[in-house]
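Entry 14: structure prediction run for Outer membrane biogenesis protein BamB. Input pasted below.
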Amino acid sequence: MTKLIRLLLLVGCCLSTATVAEAQISTSGGIPDETLLNRYGLTLSWWGRSIIDGKRDTVLFVTADEQNIYMQSSSGILTTFNGETGRQLWSTLVGSPDQRGFPATTNDEQLLVTGGMQIYSFNKDTGDLLWQLRSPEHPSASPSINESQVAIGAIDGSVFAFDLRKVRELHDERMLPRWTHLAQMWRFKTPLATVSPPIFTGETIVFASEQGIVYGLFSENKKLKFQFETDVRIETPLGSSREEILIISEDSRLFCINKDNGRTRWTFSSGAPMRSPARVIGQQVFVAPTREGMSCIHLKTGLLLWEQPRAIEFVAASETRVYASDLNGNLLILNRGTGEKIGQLQLRHFNKRINNERTDRIYLANESGMVLAIREIGSEYPSFHLYPERRPILPLLVPEEGEEPPMKDGAVKAVAPADEEAKENPFEN
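Run finished. Output tokens:
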């Protein structure tokens, strides 16, 4: 009996040692081990560190668009990386140190950042200051920008729209931010604070009030186009796709409405509060009700496709996979069609995670300023989800006579019957 107990203890020690060894090999100096990533068809694209004062500073916000990664620290330092190469493009102190701010927002050329009452616009590739506005009231969320306007939501319920051309003229004449009011196009007042950045869509601008009302206005003259009302408050930021607005109300319901006319397409009830905005990838909507895991819903019908009880936060998605966080900070790898777990990576130290609706890249960061970029093996060029037309046109390399065309790393040559049609991604239709 004594020998049996000793044998069991020895086996237990060996298993414990193996578990510790696996945990240690998963990170090397905080960077995931490439062998472990490769096991799940992933690779570390790059890693970097933002400019930060390690003694008193922490990373507050990490955001991304199709080109760059933007890291904002608690002291107001903004660091920009190229999303594909990891090259640090520029860094700057936005406004005065330790001012209240919100996550950065961008369009094709400009990056907007708030610092107290000030709105700063930078060339997102060079860091040059393009202009600076003073918000008439304290902002309640990040500003929004399109090709012709800047919109700012405020804590008093106001939404202000500014003419971008006039803003640039005033900046060139060195009249900003003092004469900001000369560029103001209109002001629209709602009962309570706006809960998220206004959304530009064509000739319409859409925003929500905490009172539970979503407004759709003509962006040029603030004429009311539609008004959508819920029965309770709205405190979760709006989600959106190319044609839809996703609204989460405090009674645990998700509404999908048309961007142009506000008509309800469908309603989904989760049975639990949803504190993060709905994320849209192709024809799938991802929401994470509190303590209920993550749900995948069909964008056009509102039907529940699958549930994954371990996932609590959407991180990224490729054509066949979804990446999500669990309660322990692990990065879950899920089958996009069924929600079944494929594997997980122990990356709890990287707790700042971009909810990437733009591309298939996985971006993770921590409060001390380290950022990682992970991609699937063979995916040298990112897939663009929200704006596929923004993907750069790649040169077509024509092979010489008798040569095989070049293939991506990790690709497998397949021979199909001549009459077989190319299959489309089933999740995009």
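Notes: The chain is about 10% helix and 40% strand. Will compare against the previous run tomorrow.
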